[in-house]
Design goal:
- This is Integral membrane protein.
- Keywords: Membrane, Transmembrane, Transmembrane helix.
- The protein contains four helices and no strands.
- It is mainly alpha-helical.
- It has one domain.
Length: 148
């Protein structure tokens, strides 16, 4: 499959929200919606029971919302935002996942990232690495365009 070209013959930058990126953005959107719904309920109704866990769930939801928009828009500035949010997501799910497995009561209650996202079918564990791969893959044509 050939890369799309501009009239000047240069390789066009690949957008993060096109092709496979549409599937990725859809999965991020679904996870953002689920995490936002869960964290909103926990903050309003149950915050006093486990404030650290529910704050972490809210942070995860915010990361998913921003990452969804950043990947969907895919302009250079949003691409940087996507690298940052997806990177935070990867570090968060690995760190929180490991801590929650080492000591299941460490946060009081489970978070979106507890047990490496077990409550969400491990999608939170796989998704950031797929997202980072996609950002890297689509950035290759962007960097090739800058050097041409």
């Amino acid at each position: 499959m050939t890369e799309p070209t501009e009239p000047t013959g240069k390789t066009a930058a690949r957008r993060t929200g096109r092709g496979f990126g549409r599937v990725l953005v859809t999965v991020y959107g679904i996870l953002a919606f689920a995490a936002l719904g869960r964290s909103s309920y926990e903050l309003v109704v149950k915050f006093g029971e486990a404030p650290v866990a529910y704050t972490l769930s809210t942070l995860a939801a915010a990361v998913y919302v921003v990452a969804t928009f950043a990947l969907a828009i895919g302009t250079p500035a949003w691409r940087v935002t996507a690298w940052i949010t997806v990177g935070i997501e990867a570090v968060g799910v690995v760190t929180i996942g490991a801590l929650s497995l080492a000591d299941p009561g460490v946060f009081g209650e489970s978070t979106v990232w507890s047990g490496f996202g077990q409550g969400y079918g491990y999608v939170p564990l796989v998704l950031p690495f797929v997202g980072l791969w996609w950002l890297w893959r689509t950035s290759r044509s962007t960097s090739e365009e800058r050097t041409a």
